[in-house]
């Protein structure tokens, strides 16, 4: 189902995203970190990773909240960093590919 520029994936997300990446068009955007991000990384479907680092910690978390868990794979290169007036730092990483010599 597509609404404006949004596609809701209602089937296997890895197969659906692999299919979308083969089509011409704009970037595919994924917000958030969790099992889907780790699965995309493991399948080599994550081209860019943006981490927002906030200058404070609030609440509690579990090991499931971590981006990299045992079994996760991905190699990235920092391509940009932006510091917002609030102190939040946005780190943008590009995925390293085998053809990059990495």
Outline the low-pLDDT stretches.
none
Strand content: 15-25%
* Oligomerization state: single chain
CATH class label: Alpha Beta
Helices and strands, in order, run as EEHHEEE
Q: Roughly what is the average pLDDT, rounded to an integer? A: 78
CATH architecture: 3-Layer(aba) Sandwich
Structural class: alpha+beta
Strand order of the largest sheet: 3-5-4
Extended strand count: 5
Radius of gyration: 15 Å
GO molecular function, one term: 5-amino-6-(5-phosphoribosylamino)uracil reductase activity
Domain Bacterial bifunctional deaminase-reductase C-terminal: 12-89
Protein name: RibD C-terminal domain-containing protein
Structure, explained:
This protein has 102 residues and is α+β, with helices and mostly antiparallel strands. It is 17% helix and 25% strand. It has a three-stranded antiparallel sheet, with no helix packed on it. A two-stranded antiparallel ribbon has the order 1-2. The termini are far apart. The model has no long low-confidence stretch (mean pLDDT 78).
Break the fold down into its secondary structure elements and pairings:
Elements: E1 2-3, E2 6-7, H1 13-21, H2 35-42, E3 48-53, E4 76-83, E5 89-95
Quickly list its features:
102 residues, alpha+beta, Dihydrofolate Reductase, subunit A, 3-stranded antiparallel β-sheet, 2 helices, 17% helix, 25% strand, globular, 5-amino-6-(5-phosphoribosylamino)uracil reductase activity, DHFR-like_dom_sf, RibD C-terminal domain-containing protein, RibDG_C
